[in-house]
From TrEMBL:
Keywords associated with the record: Disulfide bond, Secreted, Signal
Protein name: PRSS58
GO BP field: positive regulation of reproductive process; proteolysis
GO CC list: extracellular region; secretory granule
Primary localisation category: secreted
InterPro entries recorded: Peptidase_S1_PA (IPR009003), Peptidase_S1_PA_chymotrypsin (IPR043504), Trypsin_dom (IPR001254), TRYPSIN_HIS (IPR018114)
Length: 244
């Protein structure tokens, strides 16, 4: 009976588990997605205003460069619609600590307003929180080659649902899952590893609901990721933008 249940679970989740395709050449870059290039490792950012980007606080990296409208960072010279901008300041959440996955948010004020067009646009912030079983799109770049010193060359968009705190604790027994966190993925998790760019956003029903703060595994293969729940930080986001 147990084997039958395991087989049934595998069949139901097979389409999601196989959505990660490192050879996919047809992925479409979400209009809000930003490649944060640095002298260290890259991150993902999200355009929430023509002058503001949100990402994880751990993406406060040296010589950061923001590239919009890019699909394949490893071959950026062939990209037709990119915008490259600098930033004026980075503002991380005042309670963020590098020893914790909580409050892992940062706002980046750009040097100039982004030109919004058919290839670059903002994403909406939530007016209500995401709930269990909401379907979300997780977007980030993955590495085809085992070379962290090379920019990634594969954009991936994976549709996965929000799970409950109880299910999330099954995947992360040693982490306290708090109300300001959002978990997206499939339990049980941990499939084949992959190299993916950190701070992937979770956009649910067209609304930014989370920024990846921690994952033990590969979120592009539907392993459970812990995301900062954006809804809980709307007052901080709005106040920061208003005062800067």
């Amino acid at each position: 009976m147990i084997m039958i249940l395991i087989l049934l679970w595998a069949l139901l989740n097979l389409p999601v588990a196989l959505t990660f395709d490192p050879d996919d050449k047809n992925a479409i870059t979400p209009l809000y997605l930003i490649y944060l290039k640095s002298d260290y490792l890259p991150c993902v950012g999200v355009l929430i205003h023509p002058l503001w980007v949100i990402t994880a606080a751990h993406c406060n990296l040296p010589k950061l460069q923001l590239i919009l409208g890019v699909t394949k960072p490893s071959n950026i010279n062939e990209e037709k619609y990119i915008q490259v901008v600098g930033y004026e300041k980075m503002i991380h959440h005042p309670q963020f600590s590098i020893t914790s996955i909580e409050y892992n948010l940062m706002l980046i004020k750009l040097q100039t307003h982004i030109e919004l067009n058919d290839h670059v646009n903002t994403v909406s912030l939530p007016i209500k929180p995401a709930t269990e079983d909401d379907m979300c799109t997780i977007s980030t770049w993955a590495y085809n080659l085992c070379d962290l010193y090379k920019d990634p060359d594969s954009l991936q968009n994976v549709n996965i649902s929000v799970i409950s705190k109880v299910e999330c604790r099954r995947a992360y027994k040693n982490i306290r899952i708090r109300d300001n966190m959002l978990c997206v993925g499939i339990v049980p998790g941990r499939r084949q590893p992959c190299k993916e760019v950190t701070a992937a956003p979770a956009v649910c029903n067209g609304v930014l609901q989370g920024i990846l703060t921690f994952a033990d595994g590969c979120v592009l293969r539907a392993d459970v990721g812990i995301y900062t729940r954006i809804f809980n930080y709307i007052p901080w986001i709005e106040n920061t933008i208003r005062n800067n």
